[in-house]
Amino acid sequence: xxxxxxxxxxxxxxxxxxxxxxxxxxxxxxxxxxxxxxxxxxxxxxxxxxxxxxxxxxxxxxxxxxxxxxxxxxxxxxxxxxxxxxxxxxxxxxxxxxxxxxxxxxxxxxxxxxxxxxxxxxxxxxxxxxxxxxxxxxxxxxxxxxxxxxxxxxxxxxxxxxxxxxxxxxxxxxxxxxxxxxxxxxxxxxxxxxxxxxxx
Length: 200
Fold this sequence. Notes:
- Its main location: endoplasmic reticulum.
- It is found in: Endoplasmic reticulum.
- InterPro entries: Glyco_trans_28_C, UDP-GlcNAc_transferase.
- Its EC number is 2.4.1.141.
- One of its GO terms (cellular component) is UDP-N-acetylglucosamine transferase complex.
- The structure is a single chain.
- With 200 residues, the protein is α/β, with parallel strands linked by helices.
- The protein contains nine helices and eight strands.
- An eight-stranded mixed β-sheet has the order 3-4-5-2-1-6-7-8, with helices on both faces.
- The model has no long low-confidence stretch (mean pLDDT 89).
- It has a single domain (3-199), classed as Glycogen Phosphorylase B (Rossmann fold, 3-Layer(aba) Sandwich), CATH 3.40.50.
- It is globular and about 50 Å long.
- It starts with a strand and ends with a helix.
């Protein structure tokens, strides 16, 4: 049975540091040692060439020719153009954007690694998946730090900086499953949580 890490950087602003961290040998080795055999990387628009360069630069990754099918179809991925690589038995599927991210998370993710944008956080939490929210520290107002820390303090996710050691530590914690379950969106406690997160 396939065990999958789904990574989402969001649709608009690429998060190069997160992709670089995930493609470090020590991160890939940790992914392997924890029994994952597939990584789906949604890296954001306009980052395709850089993603291919990063993938090709990692010693041990075998890049497959363009047009090679991976374990998931273009229809499942929601994108006809994706890259396929292999790192010592861990399949790496990279794509810039998919309208199917929630379906991919729900159907395939055993753990989600996301940038700390509110929309991506909520997608993973609604699917009740273990979530590691990685803060994009290059953003000027550092709002992702506030969002990730608030959700972590409530027990919903693990917050990490874009460093291999942080992501690896969070992957180890995520082996024990999802943290607290997100309340129903129509419940006043959830409404209060969002208000506190947005305005604190």
